[in-house]
Specification:
Rhomboid-like fold; 8-stranded mixed beta sheet
Length: about 525
């Protein structure tokens, strides 16, 4: 009974305070900085999904993880499980709270006609007494993006906007500043052939057209102004293609057929329900391990050990004597990704045309003389998962290779194999935008593999990593053959790395002999 009380007061209550403080604090800041002022510098999914998903790890790592040392947990995986469930206990209610805040805080402005918007303060929701939706002068925009692990899914999106007029006769004016938007989405496997993808899109477009033709769009309760989101960007592009768009900044809306008072549904209650469920699960987990009494006594006496966890967590992002180039390369990749996010280009994934504008590899442009794309594309990534997967692979190979090769050779190998991968990509693909560090990373793995086979590393080291490295390379190459992955860059980078490895072997052996002679 005493141990249970100690667990509650020393671990559970601190976690409860951390979790409630984060949920309430994040929601309050969102309201003060963005919602109240109708100011949206970031895309809505960043504020409502991704930051609530990622940021809870900060208080968990700072305050909760040290408290978990009061439990007798022998396996690191078990400690991570506590942290993982704790992060979800915080993240899910925070996401729901932002969704509720976004819907519940908006005002409904009643208008006799859409043109009255110009005379009133801009709000999020509008109810129209008189309106006419012009389905004959539409603007359309089609796009595709990838998602899922290893970009396994291909998402087709079609955005359509229709001028909103006060009455049918207003279409004679030949311009409109207000549009009603609708969208159609279909997801297919990204591993299909180009011909199959084109056939799927053709069928999708035909079905979407049929649905659009059979929809009246004349019966809705209220309109919602689109914000800074993926859909908002799609509607903006569609409005640019409408011949009736005026020279003023146009506004796109989406329709709602439910009552305005019901817009939040039961989302407010689910904030507390999800939080309660998470707390119960975490508390049950807390009952399983025993207390580490020695650590409890140290805490009660104020004898806490100095923590080096922040240094361990971020040490590989800071150049040091052993790893100088590796952190710089990782930071450049992270910095470019952050810059693209801040530019409002996305978060989970980026569009191909944006990647092209930022330096993506593209054969027609390279042939025209933009050779710098062979280098810049290896620091760009298609989205969050692409970046995380590549940086994990880079980290694993770079930790072992940079101390052995030295800074200059490690950097040269990385850049040269990356360029070799880019050349392989444009040789194989005639009109595909290619980005990512994976070609250069495969180059490092090619070097790594050769050095282990030629016994540059110790027998014990090679025995531990040779098979796993070969399996990693083989599995990723096989996965690339299923489609949706630039396997030409992978193969090119790997080939370049193997060649570089054989070139480096004599030098490294000579250096090892001189070192032993000393």
């Amino acid at each position: 009974m005493k141990n249970l009380k100690q667990k509650i007061f020393l671990i559970f209550i601190p976690f409860l305070i951390i979790a409630a403080g984060f949920i309430g604090g994040y929601t309050l800041l969102n309201w003060l900085l963005f919602v109240r002022n109708d100011y949206h510098p970031f895309r809505e999914d960043i504020i409502s999904i991704w930051l609530p998903f990622l940021l809870p790890w900060v208080p968990i790592f700072i305050w909760l993880k040290p408290r978990l040392k009061l439990l007798r947990i022998t396996k690191e995986n078990a400690s991570f499980a506590f942290q993982f469930i704790a992060s979800f206990t915080i993240a899910i209610p925070t996401m729901l709270a932002q969704n509720w805040l976004d819907t519940a805080s908006g005002e409904l402005t009643k208008l006799d006609c859409i043109s009255e918007i110009q005379e009133k303060k801009l709000t999020k929701y509008y109810a129209l007494e008189n309106y006419y939706i012009d389905k004959t002068n539409i603007g359309t925009y089609s796009t595709a993006d990838v998602s899922g692990k290893y970009s396994s899914d291909l998402n087709f999106r079609i955005y359509i906007v229709m001028p909103v007029q006060c009455k049918a006769a207003d279409t004679i004016k030949g311009e409109s500043s207000f549009f009603l938007g609708t969208k159609y989405i279909k997801t297919i496997s990204n591993r299909l052939s180009d011909e199959e993808k084109q056939e799927h899109f053709k069928t999708f477009a035909e079905i979407s057209q049929l649905d659009f033709d059979n929809s009246s769009f004349q019966n809705f309760e209220y309109l919602e102004r689109t914000g800074n989101s993926i859909d908002g960007e799609g509607y903006s592009e569609a409005m640019k293609k409408c011949k009736l768009v005026s020279h003023h900044d146009p506004i796109a809306f989406i329709e709602h057929k439910d009552q305005f008072s019901e817009r939040s549904g039961s989302s407010f209650g689910w904030i507390f329900k999800s939080f309660g469920i998470g707390l119960v699960v975490w508390f049950i987990m807390l009952l399983i391990p025993k207390l580490h009494l020695a650590n409890v006594r140290k805490l009660e006496k104020g004898e806490t050990e100095k923590s080096y966890e922040w240094r361990e967590m971020f040490g590989l992002l800071i150049p040091n004597q052993a790893h100088f180039v590796l952190p710089i390369i990782i930071n450049l990749n992270l910095l470019l990704n952050i810059c693209m996010i801040c530019a409002g280009l996305g978060f989970v994934s980026f569009r191909a045309d944006d990647l092209l504008n930022w330096g993506g590899n593209y054969r027609p442009y390279v042939i025209e003389g933009q050779w710098w794309r062979l280098l810049t594309n290896i620091f760009l990534h298609g989205g969050l998962m692409h970046l995380v997967a590549n940086m994990a692979g880079l980290l694993f190979a770079g930790i072992f290779l940079e101390p052995l090769l030295g800074r200059k050779r490690f950097l040269i190998v990385y850049l040269v194999t990356g360029i070799f991968a880019s050349l392989s990509s444009i040789w194989w693909y005639h009109a595909t935008v290619s980005v990512g560090a994976s070609g250069a990373i495969f180059g490092l793995y090619g070097v790594f593999l050769v050095l282990m086979l030629r016994k540059i590393f110790s027998p014990e080291f090679s025995k531990s990593f040779l098979v796993s490295t070969a399996v990693f390379i083989g599995a990723n190459l096989l996965l690339g053959f299923t489609g949706g992955i630039d396997n030409a860059a992978h193969i090119g980078g790997l080939a370049g790395g193997i060649i570089a490895g054989f070139i480096l072997v004599p030098q490294l052996k000579k250096e090892a002999e001189l070192l032993h002679a000393e």
